[in-house]
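Subject: complex prediction, re-run

Hi both,

The earlier run crashed halfway through, so I resubmitted it with identical inputs.
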Amino acid sequence: MDTAETSLVIEQCLDGNEQAIERFVSTHKTDVFRLALSIVQDPAAANEITQETFIAALRSLRSYKEKSSLKAWLYTIALNTSRSHLRRQKALDKLRTTLTSILRLDSQRLSTPEDAVIQSEKEKVIWKALNELDEKHRTVVVLRYFQDLPIAEIAEILSASEGTIHSRLHTARDRLRIALTSLHGD
Amino acid sequence: MKLSHAEAHQLIQQSVDTPLPQDKEDLLDFHLQNCPDCGVYRNQINDVETVLRSTMNKHWSASPASFDADAITGKVKASPQGRLGTQLVMISLTIMLVMFGAWRLVNTSVIPATIAPLQISPIPTPSTLHARTLAPNCEEVVYTVQEGDTFAGIASRFSATAEIIMDWNQIQPDALMVGNRISIPVCITPSATVHSTTLTLTFSPAPSITSSP
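This time it finished cleanly. Structure:
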């Protein structure tokens, strides 16, 4: 979407044009949902986060500065909403752990059981290693390889420099590489 | 210029995200031609990227549940921003009420509208006295009131009466104040025999007082 198109969409949404809002939501909802899913690992929660993201975005559309791309701006809201959800979820999980028997948190993080997704051995190893990355490295990997975003946009979404994004990707790839090489016994 | 293995790894990682400048690319290519280990490293990084993309797509390629854009629009309209107009009206009313209350407070005063002017009685001096006519045998003595003086006491000293002093000076009975300068009309009645050269001064009240404004 070029700048002129973006401005038009924003203007129409601000005017309360329901068709424009519907178009805006339809255009971006899958990407937002998948980003949320990659963070929270739960489709139901990802759906909720997607709705919350669009509500928050439409409410604060006036504050959107056209310096960044609309997608990047939307992704920033989605990321923040997902992180808030994760924080709430962590608090709930802690409570569950205290009240009931101890549940393994790492298995809870995967919404779909491993056997429901057919994966090669390499994919299993990379998936496990990916989930073991800390949040800041995992997020850059998701934005780069799942959302296919350029470095500049990732830097904008995460409010970091491009150098920092390069560095985090470098570190994440090295860790995943080590996990893969251990599979082969290299 | 030769690259170290660490530098080569660095350039390999860089090239994955953004194209390298030509000179760096040439250096890397030359290094990789002569370093099998760094070649393996590059292949492993490429492998990571491929597997990463495929596994993420398998896990996260689900589509969102269909939700009504109308539901989103409805929630946006019901948001605080949607009620902004009402909030602004309430805030404006509150400010107006506060300002009205402050205005009322300023304009409602417990101090009476008029204050009775402070009456200060001038200290009588001879110049403020009414013009009086003294008899030829009388003269005006100016006396400064001392502490403890009374009209009666002063009058007795000058063979006058308190009433004459009060009247002559136009002073109220309770207005005698220390430091006041009052005039006392004193009249001399000589009493002498042929053989006596003693002049006896007898102070007596002035025989007549006529006043003119």
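Chain A touches chain B through 48 residues (CB under 8 Å).

- K.
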